[in-house]
Amino acid sequence: MAGTGWPGVIARFRDRLDLPGKMSPVTLNEGGTPLIEAPRLAAALGGGFRLFLKYEGLNPTGSFKDRGMTAAMTVAAHNGARAVICASTGNTAASAAAYAARAGMTCVVLIPDGKIALGKLAGAVAYGARVVAIRGSFDDGLRMVREAAARAPIVLVNSVNPARLQGQKTASFEIVDDLGGPPDWLALPVGNAGNITAYWMGFLEEMGAGRALSAPRVLGAQAAGSAPILNRAPVEAPETLATAIRIGQPARWCEALIALRQSCGQLWRVEDSEILEAYRMLARLEGVFCEPSSAAGVAGLKKSLAHGKLDLDGKTVVAVLTGHGLKDPDNALRDAPAPETMDPDTDALLLRLGL
To answer: pTM score, two decimals?
Structure first.
């Protein structure tokens, strides 16, 4: 678990990261997130296999982005940067803002106007970032920040920054350490495709000479309204309640295809209703609260099993939950019944409860 005694991913895995030497890490003690076994959810999905949840929502800013951001910000600080910039659907904004604050840098984040979960916007604002809402998509924002970084002294910290992948791949190392070997399958959401790229990179490095032969197979999931890789074409106006993966032209598109091909993996299109179902199952069956986007991988796993495309008998599966549920509280409360109200009377309470 991250915190006292856990040094952060750069200190923990420094000799396995392709980063400049002798850097002083910009860290919030990220990483060391738990791998939670989920037997009730596995049973609900058909049983016969072991399912684990890599709960990245317990990183310092509540998402997996912190793994890559510590690396990107450390390199930026090492090179004398004073300001960083990113485009974001939310989690990158909060993470960049926090690590920039830690490093004493200025942070600018571009977000799609009205298309970001409030829990994520709150983080970016609280950490002191300059937040600019654009009347356009994430993809428009990414184009703008790339152009800005090319023309001005400001460092781009989106996942196109290679240091980001170096940090994010450490989750693969932790999974292998915790399980004593690689899982048979890894299920995760696919948005900008940096995470699927980083996990595959990490597993290939972790498995050494065996590489793809012993690395897990990868099962990715894209929201139906934001599925450019499955559509084989960019999506001009992506739409899904899973805001973290509402991306129409993934920056790591090619790398994601390589990971899927080399791992003999699968990529599924999941409807918002299927994402919400998986999101609720995680919370109600296992007590694990993630943001809806995080549940897309579980939704894809469920769909693949339902279509008879997976034989998991005796296998081990890890599902990556990329962000904490408090990042997107609106979806948790949208269809929830209002709390029951009553007078402070214990007898009446027990009667109401049928006890």
So the answer is: 0.93
